[in-house]
Design goal:
about 325 residues, five-stranded mixed sheet, four-stranded mixed sheet, binds (2R,3R)-2,3,4-trihydroxybutanoic acid
Length: about 325
């Protein structure tokens, strides 16, 4: 199993484009993420570090902290707010309690393809969401992605909603996800990502759901025998900066960080997407049963979760949902 979780081949980190940016002052960024060092997110952060350090001519130093070592998604966001951490890039889902419209990204089966996700993140809706999150001590400067979520479990192969009956599934700390799994007949429990491996190992929960890259980089195959490619939710990562830190930066460096976040996001999405087939193969080689669903089987899940839309339409705004549908 150790071998199966060696970091798979990733596209090389691109050369840094753009001139050195001149501005006053020296700055240090501690950048924390929940996923581990072998994931695509960390690879994206290495590119971010390279851009920022080269283009600031070393006047901004970036230090990376993967694997939730400085706290899980929500703890890192609070650390930004209090100014003890400069940057983080959490999944949007745990932030729905602060930014209700982020629930858009939790609706099941809303983003049919990565191209639609890109159009939304890089277009007006993505900008609106960044503006919405640039408050409460946070400045939101870009999008990367966790990706399409897949179900893993230790109990049985899952090909239909009926297979989920009573299955204890860990979800992110997010009410829409709880609603999705209850509606599907499972028994969901919200939990921080940092506690998840141990909870799976000890059988506190039977299953969890995360993108292939995160399943692989967190070694969930060591404690889960079955995986189903459900693609049920698309999860972005949002790149956040502490407002306290941001307000001390010269405008030139603020722009440099925005550019670097944009370039990191494009590269990181490309890295994650290019690895999915290889990861599925590696997981299968490690002994995990990987189940791909037929379009009819996917439709059975879609039909069963459809009521979730009615429960969250008012909070999110029907117009926003329709705009995403129109992009498809
Ligand atoms: O930082 O909680 C999760 O399932 C996520 O993959 C986590 O947000 C990664």
């Amino acid at each position: 199993a150790l071998q199966a979780n060696a970091a798979p081949e990733m596209p090389p980190i691109p050369d840094v484009q753009g001139d050195v940016v001149q501005a006053d002052g020296d700055f240090k960024i501690k950048f924390s993420i929940g996923t581990t060092q072998s994931g695509a997110q960390y690879r994206g952060l290495e590119y971010f570090e390279k851009i920022v350090e080269q283009r600031s001519d070393g006047h901004i130093q970036v230090e990376l902290f993967p694997g939730a070592q400085l706290g899980d998604d929500l703890q890192a966001v609070s650390a930004l707010q209090s100014g003890t951490l400069e940057m983080t890039a959490p999944s949007t889902s745990p932030l729905v309690s602060m930014f209700p419209k982020f629930a858009l990204f939790d609706l099941p089966f809303l983003f049919p393809t990565p191209d639609v996700a890109d159009q939304v993140l890089d277009g007006d809706i993505g900008q609106q969401m960044l503006d919405e999150a640039s408050t409460n001590g946070l400045v939101a400067i870009g999008w990367a992605e966790n990706g399409y979520r897949q179900l893993t479990n230790s109990r049985q192969e899952v090909t239909a909603p009926e297979d989920l009956e009573g299955l204890k599934v860990r979800t992110m700390q997010n009410p829409i996800h709880l609603d999705i799994w209850r509606t599907l007949g499972a028994n969901p429990t919200p939990m921080s990502f940092a506690e998840l491996f141990t909870a799976l190992e000890q059988g506190v929960v039977d299953g969890q759901e995360n993108p292939w890259i995160t399943i692989q980089s967190s070694r969930f195959n060591e404690v889960q025998d079955y995986a189903t490619e459900t693609n049920h939710v698309y999860t972005p990562f949002i790149t956040l900066v502490s407002e306290r830190f941001w307000s001390r930066l010269p405008a030139e460096y603020q722009q440099l960080l925005r550019d670097a976040a944009q370039q990191m996001g494009e590269y990181e999405r490309h890295v994650g997407r290019s690895m999915n087939d290889q990861i599925k193969q590696d997981l299968a080689d490690s002994g995990m049963q990987i189940t791909e669903l037929t379009p009819e089987q996917v439709k059975a899940f879609q039909d069963k979760v459809a009521p979730v839309y009615d429960n969250w339409r008012d909070q999110i705004g029907g117009e926003l949902i329709d705009q995403v549908r129109a992009a498809s």
